[in-house]
Amino acid sequence: MNNKMTVILFSGDLDKALAAFTLATTAASAGMDVSIFFTFWGLNILKKSRFSQTKGQNPLQRMFNFMSTSKLPISKFNMLGLGPLMMKIGMKKVGMAQLEELMTLARSLKVKFIACSTSCGFFGLSKENLVPEVDEFAGASTYLAEAMESKINLFI
Amino acid sequence: MAGKKSTCPVCDELDDASMKSDKTLDCTGLFCPLPIAKTRMVMQKMMSGEVLEILADDPGFLKDLPAWCGLSGEEFVAVKQTGNVYKGYVRKK
Prior knowledge:
The structure holds two protein chains of two kinds. Chain A is of the alpha/beta class.
C-alpha cells in the first residue's frame, strides 16, 4: 500500500493555497496518495466563476459568494487585491509556478480533490459551480477515514 | 553561492567522467516543487536501472533530491554543484 497524505484546505488565501499545493504535488511526486479536502473558504479555489451566483441561493448565500470569490486574496498585504497581483507578477519574475499550474500538475499526479458537502450547502454551491476536477463531495467521516490511514495530515 | 563547495563529501570525489546518465532533465530556473515533480514524471517513463541527470539551480534541490529518493524509493546516486548549477543523479529502481 502506498503512503498517504491528506490536506484540509480551509483557507481561501492564495499564499496558503500555494503552500498546500506545493506540498501535495511534492508528496504525489514521491508516489504518495494525496487527497485535498476543500472546506469553507477553501472552496473559493474550486469556484468556476468569480461570484458563483445561482438561482437556488438565498440572499445570505448570495452575499457570501459576492464578498468571498474565486479571486483569492493573500493573507498579508492584500491591499484590496493589489497584493495578489504583485505576488503573481513577482512569482512570474523568478519563475515560480502559479496556483493554476500547480493545480494542473496536481491533477496529472492524481491528487484527489474532495469538496466538503456541508460547506457547499452553506454557501449554496453545487457541482455546477465548481471546476470539473472535483472528484467527490463528502463530509467529515470521509476525511477522518482517509486521515486514519495517512502518515501526514495537514490543516491549512 | 558561486564557487561554494558541495556539502556532500562523496560528491566532491566524483568527477564528470564517472557520472554517466541515460537522460538529462533541465530544471534550471524552476523552483520547488517543479524540479522534483518533473523528475518524477520523466523517471516514470524510464527503464529500471537507467540513470537520470537533473540540472537545477534552486538551492533547495541539494537536499530535496536525496529526500525525495528516500520517499519514492528511487536510488540516489549523487548531487554535485558546479557554479550556480546543481547536477543530480538518480537511478530508477
